[in-house]
Amino acid sequence: MSPKPLIAPLIHYKGRGATTHLPGRFEIDQRDSFDDGWSPDDIEAPPLHTEVFSEQAKSILTYNTSPDLPFNVSLNPYRGCEHGCIYCFARPTHSYLGLSPGLDFESRLYAKVNAPQLLERELAKPSYQPQPIALGINTDAYQPIERKLCITRRVLEVLHTCAHPVGLITKSSLIERDLDLLAPMAERQQATVTISMTTLDATLARILEPRAAAPERRLRTVQRLAAAGIPVAVSIAPVIPFITEPELERVLAACASAGATSANYVVLRLPWEVAPLFRQWLATHFPDRAQRVMNRVQEMRDGKDYRAEFGQRMQGEGLWANLLQQRFANAVRRLGLKRCQYEPLDSSSFMRPVLKPIRQGATAQLTLFDNE
């Protein structure tokens, strides 16, 4: 009997979260790599450049009725996210584009260049009823390409002009650029911001969410937003057993000291292709505790990597999930934090915009090269 081929060692691409171009679940062909003995042990991954494609979206607002989400309407200016967070629940959406939820998700991005015009058209409809829009829920609205493209900035300008409430969630310090819009909106109770935090360990953050702002930088963003009068919540997400979970109380304390007024948390979610991608990441960076982490994840998910039921998917079930809930409750009570994500926002001052024609933008591929 011939020996079974060895699985090829996973490669860590500098500045990237995923380790492979894992095929999406709709692909006909599925491939497994293996070590044929010809590759040197010290192989170095080539640089993986970011490609950005402009997209003319057909619609821009997404509606949901999920009982465990604090918003009903969301807007996402981008598909894919360069932050490269290995745990991102939005990774499977790249499968619908025929792309990998792995490295493609963080290196082949789509910018909805007509988002501000579509939003303006939507708000101008006589039938539109204003309610808070959650901005940047699937993928971060302030990911690095926003610095050049400014789509999120232009969306905020529309909302600011129309006195329309908005809630943002980000792990990027780039949001400070838009304080001139957010501060007056917050003064009118029309804006709130949630900063996503996972760890205070910069070394861990560098491999967990490689192109997001460093933890210390995010804390300074909390300070600056709070100093500008903007209500700031923190989302401790995800809580990963034996990886970020031991830091829960310290992360909450640091955020409270920086000026956050409320907090929530989400236990690690592994839908669809996120599960094998996360397992690959564990095998690459934490082989000594990989099985232990997954055992605890499955303990909270009735023996599975993930369960999608409302009320269960965010915090899990079982003894460990209950203990985590108690730890969180005790910490926020001790720190004087509220247990909510969004402050109440005011829709009463909404001013319907004058409808303008949508200007057709270029559809050519845009390419950003980063040499990391």
UniProtKB/TrEMBL annotation:
SMART domains: Elp3. It holds the Pfam family Radical_SAM. One of its GO terms (molecular function) is catalytic activity. SUPFAM superfamilies: Radical SAM enzymes. CDD domains: Radical_SAM. This is Radical SAM protein.
